[in-house]
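> Could you send the Thioredoxin domain-containing protein prediction when you get a chance?

Sure thing. Input:
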Amino acid sequence: MKNNLNIQETVYQFCKLYNPQLQKDKIRILLESSPFYPSVLSVYRALLSCKIDCNVVKTDIHGLLSLHQTMLLHIKEKENDKLVLVKSLKDEQAVYYDSFKQQYHVINTQVLLSSWDGVIIYSCATEQKRDRYHWLYFIFLFLFILLIFREITGFFISLNIIGLIVSFLLINQEFNLIENSILNRYCKIGKIFNCDKVIHSKIAHLKSLSLAELGSIYFISNLFWIITATLISIPQEYILGYLKIINLLCIPFILFLTFYQMYLKKWCLLCLSVCFVICIESLLSFCLEINLFISYLLIKIHLLACTISCFGIFFLTKYIKLSKSEKTQQIEALRIKRNPNVFHAVMRKQPQLKEENKDYLLVGNQESSIIITTWISPYCPHCANIVTDILSLYDKTNGNIQWRIYWAGKADKHSYYNKVQLHLIAIYKEDKQKFMLAIKKWYKYHKTSLFATQSNNRLPIGSIDILEKQIQYSQDMQIKTYPSVFLNNCLLPKEYSLKDLSFMLHDKEIWEHQQK
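Output:
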């Protein structure tokens, strides 16, 4: 499959049916970092990593019609292959998701299946309903502002908040930050409306400043100076008189943006929405029949607001660009790390645990092919980071890993340094579920009532014996640094981290070879 954007968008929409909170960036990383991307195998493993239990099968049209599930169809075409998300399928018509227009369409079933190769991906999980009433939050916000600012300034503040939201949507669309199917649907309507064409055109960027950033600066600075002026009790007619001057200065910008879109023969609904908000603000200020007013105090407040807004938007966009660059580098690095040949070559050079020892504390599934052995100290901040990463892996695999724990300790069994380790071992011997809660609490807070209540209790003799054996085994293996992490009895290479393993959990080529 060559159409990568089609795959990512389609898989993302499929995942959202079962996990609405899932972020598109995670799908992108899971897919693009796979050595098999863009194949059906990479899609299947990405879905498993997102905790979506799914099946890949090859069937005929009769099996397809009897399924009655949302599914992904693998379509083979002359130039490239693609995935199609099918919401419902009947004898005569089907509802499918168009990843380019980012909306659902109805199509004839025979036309849809004409290039289908028989491969489907489906999940038996229950689809989750999404919150479809986000717009109510904006209404409540609008009413709340009107209650606080009961005079006409409250209405202008509400207009600027609406304008700021639209400007942030423009920034989102420019940098493709958060996927929103409703927004994309209205940004691409037919051949005339296309926000991306306008936003990414040459004139839409004034040197290093884009139209989206300019709109955000305008509305943020307006909010800042209007609220500040209101709070310091500047008369309302002075505020509205100064605002009228600002609106007059905005008219050339509105005209420029409108005529430019006419010249481009493409229209951006978000840009038009920004112009619409400014026009309403201008018309309202002129209808109030308030005289123009200039105040040095208001000019100073406005200049301060513009300066703060410019710096804020500048650092925001720099952060966004840096984050996107780091994400791309992360994907490229992961793609190399997830290559089985690279992984095996690196692991072969690592020191191994040659002697068997059963005195570890075992957490997880003892039959799992993923064995993580750690030497950790309860007082080490780096060990806390390792434990956090392992617990995250444990949750992602639903406990399907082996975590073998060896504690750092002093040879003197009565040493105060061994106190926490001994109590944790005692809890482990009593109840493994309590042990998991205790270790989470300890590494998160470092002090808990759990240890305070147990500190006066007598420790089981077995706890001391286990810790002594663990300390002896550490000396035999010449473990001198904490934390030390071994993966399937091989020291975890510096090039890899436990966070990398979360993307490799379903790469069978890696773990099957490791078992051998």
